[in-house]
Write a structure and sequence with these properties.
The complex is a heterodimer. By secondary structure, chain A is mainly α. Chain A has 38 helices and 4 strands. Among the domains of chain A are: 254 residues, no CATH class; 46 residues; 78 residues; 207 residues, no CATH class. Chain A is elongated and about 115 Å long. Chain A starts with a helix and ends with a helix. By secondary structure, chain B is mainly alpha-helical. Helix content of chain B is 52%, strand content 0%. Chain B folds into 2 domains: 101 residues, Helix Hairpins (Orthogonal Bundle); 35 residues, no CATH class. At the A-B interface, helix 7, helix 15, helix 23, helix 24 and helix 25 of A face helix 1, helix 2, helix 3, helix 4 and helix 5 of B.
Amino acid sequence: MGLLLLLHLLAAVGAPLLVRWWGRQAFLALALVPAAAFGWALTQLGTVVGGGDVRETVTWIPALDLQIALRLDALALTFAALVTGVGALVLVYCARYFEPDDEGVGRFAGVMTAFAGSMLGLVLADDVLVLYVFWELTTVFSFLLIGGSGAKLAGRRAASQALLLTTAGGLAMLVGLLMISSASGSRLLSEIVADPGSGPVLVAGTMLVLAGAVTKSAMVPFHFWLPAAMEAPTPVSAYLHAAAMVKAGIYLVARLAPGFADVPGWRPVVLGLGVATMLIGGWRSLRQNDLKLLLAFSTVSQLGFLITLVGAGSEELAAAGLAMTIAHALSKSTLFLSVGVIDHATGVRDLRLLSGLGRRMPALAVISTLAAASLVGLPPFLGFVGKEAAFTALWEGGVPDRLTAVVVLVGLVLGSVFTAAYCARYLWGAFARKPGLPDSAPEELEHHPGPLFLAAPAVLALAGLVAGPASPLLDHLVVVYAETLPLIAPEAEHLALWHGWQPALGLSALTLLGGAALFALRSPFMRLQHRLAVGASADEGYWNVLQGLDRLAVLVTGTTQRGSLPAYLGTILVVVLALPGSVLLFQAPWPQEWRAWDTPLQAVVGAVVLIAAAVAVPLRQRLSAVLVVGVTGYGLALLFVLHGAPDLALTQFLVETLSLVVFVLVLRKLPSDISERHRPVERTIRAVLAISAGVLMAGVGAAALGARTATPVSTDIPELALIEGHGENVVNVILVDIRAWDTLGELSVLVVAATGVASLVFLRGRTGAVDRPGEEHASGADPTEARRAPKSRWLSASSSLAPQRRSVVLEVATRFLFHPIVVFSLFLLFSGHNQPGGGFAGGLVAGLALVLRYLAGGRYELGEAARVSPGLLLGSGLLLAGGSGVISLLLGGAALESAYFSGEVPVLGSVSLPTALFFDVGVYLIVVGLVLDVLRSLGAEQDRQEDEQDQQDPAETAPEEVIAR
Amino acid sequence: MTPTIVLPVVIGGLYAAGVYLLLDRSLTRVILGFILLGNATNLLLLSSSGPAMLAPFFGYAEPEEMSDPLPQALVLTAIVITFGVTAFLLAMVHRSWRLVRQEVIEVDEEDRRVAARQGMDADDVDPDDIDPNELRTEDRPAGKGNTLHSDVDVEEQLARRYDGFASDDIALPPTRRGEQ
């Protein structure tokens, strides 16, 4: 079974390719896939009729106890045969329905095959979650098929309507399925139905599952998506919206009925909606002029009929329901396919315009008549057998309550009268010659249907004819399922063509006569319908609900989003103060005793930090404010040292220095003072908020220690670091080994930030070309001879700077310091596993070396110092860090777990090499890449834009260039 | 574990200054506020690890004497990420300055427009929101696809023949292009 599903998947993926190779003939090849599934289902007939079932279980996610459980029993086989059989024939039909030059056929073929596979999976699924997955897959594929290429407005509308309704039902169903599986204690449908459990959870879950079935099977009041879905090409209407997808709800009800029919609420919902849908669908169907819409409403009507039968929860009605399901699928898909042929041949589907087609296309007329006869319930068709069985069952039993049985019977008979009438109307509308109307097909049909085009409807129609007399054979299959339900009638009646003179026969005759009368009186009846037409429709209700939702969304957005960032932040802060703040106030474990400080020096540094922060608040000189905030950063680094965290202190020092450089790079263009934009009252509010937040966080800081009562997770980490991570620097081992996943995620953040910086400055590309001395000259952009840098001199590109911007001291210092700094950064990197340092610190030091080169020699010097693109550094760093995780996997460890090579190397002695080192090298590269990106964009590129602007006359700048800058 | 007085006070002070700056409209001050908040948070994380102990290095201290290494690892990456985000925010300042010669967080005009809006604007109507009746009358005149009878005035003929005939919700165009 799993293999068949896989086959569908492969066929769906390959379908576009096949269509490109073979054109529309590819459908014939694709039809083989469902046909193979059909054949397989038939081979299992022996097992299933004997009362057995075929099971297959594939473990999916063992940790969540998820498994793909498939099961083929009598019910599943009936539906699987229908789905695959009709699917194969519809695909054959597609091979002629589409023109060789139609667009989007490849996509259509893929989605259609994928749908066939999901539908097969739906009826085979035994696990409720697998059922749900396939259920939603059919919804999604239906959406894609209805929407088509998305070019048509009506198609998009119908597709999203169907999607919204069926997914809403599907989500309700998911919750319901989880509820009933928790009530029964199993996730397997077979076990749930055998023992559903009881209680309010079960009742609520059942109602939610029914909501899914009702929306999927287009029951009133959700029926309107189905006629709208007729936007889809006719094969889709015939397969999804007649034979397969809309039957999913019927299938689910039939599947659950043996265990759930007696759940309170089941019968009122199923029988009530079923009968109402049958009547409303039939009534509406008689109003349609478009043949396809006529059939769509007829499908709605028949779905109501079917759900009544299979949901009633008795053996006799279930058997009739299965027979009717088969009959309906066969005849309705035939009728749809016939409409497709008519549409194809004449370009018209309006029955007011078609005339005399029966004589032009006799074969099609015969096929359609056969199918319609089965739908109406004429002997000897399967539809007659099914309808007869249904009437008999309700006459003698069917549902436990007699009154209900009578009401349902009356409803079904009336619905069947409608059925007969609209079938007659369909045949008359499509094929009859109408007085006063010219023949639809003048002399020659535009596209005469070929034999292959008619093959699928013909086979389906004949199947309906043959299955009637052969119904005793069908009975063997149907009864296996039906016997799982209780028998309510005095005795079980088996499916057969002739049961003798029975009341049901009279009812059948009554429906035929009623239908004929209704058809004969169609003009007065139409006027009656017109008079009774109500203003409201479910479709409009749906539209109003959506409009209301939109208005609500606008209202909510409009009231909450006022457009002011300080206001948003203030709101967030107020909530933080109110909720966690009150919790802190009333429930925090306040410390019993306090220490003044860890060391007196801590208090001194703390005071400096506080003073710096206080000075920063009112300061309006931009660079001074930056420097003062920098003081808090350096102070923090000292606090880290005092707290026994040298790695942190090192990193904080380096980052603080780099931050200052970046600030200067950006702020050098801005005015030196920040103007005040806030009114005094705003400032007061800010101050109140700020002080409250400060008090709150101080409280958090004090209470945090008291809240730590459990043994910290980190007590074992030092030993772990030494033994497993082979490192003496515990913090570094945590970063590159124990919590390396975290670090990998944080590295990705750095890569994103670096890319963000670059893209905000370069706008159109990841980076520009690396500025190298001499290139400008070669390209002729800068003819100044003095700016060409000779290659032989060290720090040569600094000569490209204007003399007044050069600093001899800085240049000389850079010459001395650059290489030692780079070597030092590498030392930090490689010794970081055992001593302070590591990839972060090393990378920052290397970045500082680059900063030095840039400051001393300008942008050309930066190009000389780092000739690679920062993107390359970032990418290779991420690759190295991630790749070292893969190496650990290959060496048999967990991902990113340190593996360890050690050995004797001449000269160096015994050398050990953990894979964590490669990870750290990745970290190093990414940090260098980040710094380089910042320098290249905020430094070099900004210089270049400046230079360009100097050379350009501002008046000549085109407006769009200003925007681009 | 007993807390110190110094560290919570420093943390609180940094948070207060940071929040005040964060609520400013000048992007530069917002960034400064962001950095102060980052510093404060790093200090909070570290202080919650317990009293100051020796650095977590083997050969320098025994495991019992070491300060908790886990918050240190968390803070270390946080420091570098704060730098990355600061650089990004500064790039935004740069961009804002180049575009409009200011670095102010303006009132979001889009939000104001949404707030002022009563219903849907005509230009951003979703296909889902179109009334089915409008769809029928405007988007697709009935009988548009039935051009086989173009010599006869189809609508007039139909109106005569089917007087009072109820037309239904949806009018479907032919799915096939047969109307050559």
